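Hi V.,

Quick status before I head out on leave. The structure for the redesign project is tokenized and pasted below; the design run finished overnight.
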């Protein structure tokens, strides 16, 4: 491994006399800059993992801010690619996110052949980093064509992996073992033994269900070691262990109890003579947060250990990197801190039966007064269509830091026991170095070349002849909003929009003489790059039991042929909409008398909405320097801030009644698009967060000079969006041929709740269809407003 060579570079270089602090400061500077940009992780919860053609994959997504351990509000665009078993893209989908959550559905195309497929979920911001933070979820699709069963190949890969990465002669340490099959999945062995040159057994080991094991080992100089491994079919594999290094440091970590752990460094005489009593240090880090612990070998000693309190650890996964005196990483170990992470429990119960429905209650038993946002999949108790190998715990706490494939990561976080904690520790010990390559860290921080998408830009072309830049284009959106667009060389731009696939945009051309004309429009949109092909090293094997193999071979005759899809509810808006504040139903009555309506004079005097805000005594700054994640800053100039010397407070800003978490949407917003506004520097009604005042903005639904002729068909070009963000549909239960059949019990769907929010008592309720099942499974994932996570599976027996 190229990183281990860093040890030899240190041991035999001429820079050993350099001052320790030079290396230490270099690491500190490079490390902090590399993790300066925020990192996000995403988890996709699907209602099932096995689908029949023409069903829908119902999904809920969670976006997590790893720096602040909270929902990631800056991400608003999520990109999902559907790939076949060979990693080739079949289709792509785009979802709008808000406050760290997104939801939607994907229709299972009837053209898809039976087999395994993968949903890869990512964001534009993730492309800034070399480390792949996308989330991949496997689904199985059943169609008329049978799934081809993979042939069993008995070919094993046997690896010996020293803890920390270093295998040193005459230095006692721990050796990890990893035994996998031809597909890369773990193999449990009957027994493994290590023999020296005299055929004397020096170690004995076994492996877990994931093919992982370990044993204590003290390799002697000049001795060749051979391992013999016996498999359950009686076959025996023999392999020669790699030769130990002549110089180096063995590094190991061990739990002492719930509060303390011990780190141990061991070396040999040759190495001790070189390093003498120079100071090493251990960096305990995660996502840019770190604790630095100095370590020095005592004089004339080949061993040093240090007992540490687990308070030095971050919650969840921690990376322990050992640095030599010159700041070079020479060993690394991953450990997991379970403290206060997996404590949330819940209970699912039936409250009442009401007609053909069951009233279900979800109650958090230790919710801590934090509202939880949950997604719940409800399936028959005998289902074999939910074979999820990930959970929100493993997706956000484990996978972002571990390099390579993890077999069944959900296992380590479901019903956690001391055995599972030991199994996770064994996984991390044998997984090697973390996902973050120190070579990349030392090269410099990642560039900020990709932004947080706040919608997408629509680039349009007007194909009418004779159109000039003096004319305007009016576009009307499905939600009733309209805006004027500038025209340049027959082209126009609609910035930062969230076009929904299947919706229609209305365009009207306003010519110089004030008359209207019907334009001929073409639109292009860049929905975010989704790779056409992805690596398939992460592929998961099908793990249905033999008795279920026949059940998943063909698509069952389960859904009625006259099954229909429930469409979204459509709100009909009257053709004639007045643009006064008084008639705007979206403005609360108690605010209408306080709003200022935008007139032509105001538009002329203040071309941008930020001009109005600045005129009311606010500090406004646009076009920020490179590296900033925001293009607009607004602060309140207050007497208290001036006298105290504190930073200027941030106002609370609402746009069309929704509080803004980022101000990008107000960047260069024309005042002509604003119908009315309210600027209250007292912050009335906002409590402590209103120290910077409150600003309320409502955009125009139609232009001020709107009249009947704008709605006439001869003046309107209707453009149906063939691409765009996926529409959010209300869940519907498919019309099954029978709720009592084996097919329904195996593959049916009872209900799906993508957004279930708990109240102040930690309780949430919902209704499900009474399918007369004796027992029902509930698969629940969730994330609270404080970033706390929930993952639970419960079976409910129906009386």
């Amino acid at each position: 491994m190229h990183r281990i060579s860093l040890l030899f570079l240190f041991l035999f270089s001429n820079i050993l006399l350099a001052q320790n602090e030079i290396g230490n400061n270099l690491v500190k500077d490079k490390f902090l800059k590399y993790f300066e940009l925020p990192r996000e992780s995403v988890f996709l919860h699907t209602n099932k993992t096995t689908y029949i053609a023409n069903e829908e994959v119902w999904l809920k997504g969670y976006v997590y801010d790893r720096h602040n351990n909270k929902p990631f509000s800056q991400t608003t665009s999520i990109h999902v690619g559907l790939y076949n078993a060979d990693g080739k893209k079949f289709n792509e989908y785009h979802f709008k996110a808000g406050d760290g959550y997104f939801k939607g559905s994907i229709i299972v195309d009837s053209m898809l052949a039976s087999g395994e497929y993968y949903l890869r979920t990512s964001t534009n911001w993730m492309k800034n980093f070399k480390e792949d933070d996308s989330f991949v979820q496997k689904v199985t699709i059943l169609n008329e064509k049978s799934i081809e069963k993979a042939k069993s190949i008995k070919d094993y890969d046997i690896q010996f992996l020293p803890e920390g990465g270093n295998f040193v002669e005459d230095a006692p340490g721990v050796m990890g073992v990893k035994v996998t099959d031809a597909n890369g999945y773990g193999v449990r062995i009957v027994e493994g033994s290590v023999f020296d040159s005299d055929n004397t057994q020096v170690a004995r080991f076994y492996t877990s269900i994931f093919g992982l094991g370990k044993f204590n080992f003290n390799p002697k100089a000049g001795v060749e070691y051979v391992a013999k491994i016996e498999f359950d079919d009686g076959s025996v594999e023999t392999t020669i262990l790699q030769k130990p290094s002549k110089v180096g440091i063995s590094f190991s970590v061990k739990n002492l109890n719930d509060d303390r752990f011990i780190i141990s460094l061991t070396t040999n005489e040759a190495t001790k003579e070189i390093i003498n009593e120079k100071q090493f240090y251990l960096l305990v880090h995660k996502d840019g947060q770190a604790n630095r612990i100095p370590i020095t070998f005592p004089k004339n000693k080949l061993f040093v250990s240090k007992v540490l309190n687990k308070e030095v650890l971050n919650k969840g996964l921690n990376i322990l990197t050992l640095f030599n005196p010159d700041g070079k990483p020479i060993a690394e170990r991953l450990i997991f801190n379970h403290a206060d992470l997996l404590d949330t429990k819940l209970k699912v119960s039936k409250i009442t039966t009401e007609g053909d429905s069951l009233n279900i209650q979800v109650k958090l038993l230790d919710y801590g007064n934090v509202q939880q946002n949950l997604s719940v999949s409800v399936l028959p108790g005998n289902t074999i269509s939910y074979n999820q190998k990930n959970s929100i715990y493993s997706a956000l706490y484990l996978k972002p830091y571990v390099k390579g494939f993890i077999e069944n990561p959900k296992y380590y976080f479901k019903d956690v026991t001391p055995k599972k904690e030991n199994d996770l520790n064994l996984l991390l010990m044998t997984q090697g170095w973390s996902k973050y390559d120190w070579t990349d860290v030392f090269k410099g921080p990642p560039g900020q070349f990709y932004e947080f998408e706040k919608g997408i830009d629509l680039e349009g072309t007007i194909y009418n002849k004779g159109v000039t830049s003096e004319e305007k284009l009016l576009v009307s959106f499905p939600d009733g909003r309209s805006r004027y667009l500038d025209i340049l060389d027959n082209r126009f731009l609609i910035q930062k929009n969230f076009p929904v696939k299947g919706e229609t945009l209305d365009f009207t051309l306003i010519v110089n003489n004030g008359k209207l004309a019907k334009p001929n429009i073409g639109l292009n949109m860049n929905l975010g790059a989704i790779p056409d092909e992805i690596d398939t090293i992460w592929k998961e094997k099908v793990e249905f039991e033999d008795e279920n193999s026949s059940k998943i071979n063909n698509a069952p005759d389960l859904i009625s042929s006259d099954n229909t899809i429930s469409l979204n509810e459509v709100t009909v808006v009257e053709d004639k909409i007045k643009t006064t504040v008084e008639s705007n139903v979206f403005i609360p009555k108690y605010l209408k008398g306080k709003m200022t309506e935008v007139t032509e004079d105001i538009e002329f005097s203040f071309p941008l909405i930020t001009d109005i805000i600045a005129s009311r005594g606010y500090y406004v700054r646009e076009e920020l320097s490179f590296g900033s994640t925001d293009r607009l800053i607004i602060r309140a100039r207050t007497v208290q801030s001036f006298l105290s010397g504190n930073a200027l407070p941030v106002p609370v800003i609402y746009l069309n009644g929704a509080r803004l978490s980022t101000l990008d949407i107000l960047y260069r917003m024309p005042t002509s698009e604003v119908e009315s506004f309210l600027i209250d520097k007292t912050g009335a009604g906002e409590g402590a967060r209103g120290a910077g005042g409150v600003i309320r903005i409502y955009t125009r639904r139609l232009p001020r000079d709107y009249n009947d002729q704008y709605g006439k068909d001869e003046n309107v070009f209707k453009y149906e969006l063939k691409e765009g963000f996926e529409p959010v549909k209300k869940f519907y239960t498919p019309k099954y041929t029978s709720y009592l059949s084996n097919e329904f019990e195996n593959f049916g769907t009872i209900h799906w709740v993508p957004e279930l929010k708990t109240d102040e008592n930690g309780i949430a309720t919902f209704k499900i269809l009474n399918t007369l099942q004796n027992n029902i499974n509930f698969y629940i994932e969730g994330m609270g407003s404080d970033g706390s996570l929930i993952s639970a599976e419960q079976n409910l027996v129906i009386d």
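Above is the designed sequence. The chain has a mean pLDDT of 86.

G. will cover questions while I'm gone.

Best,
W.
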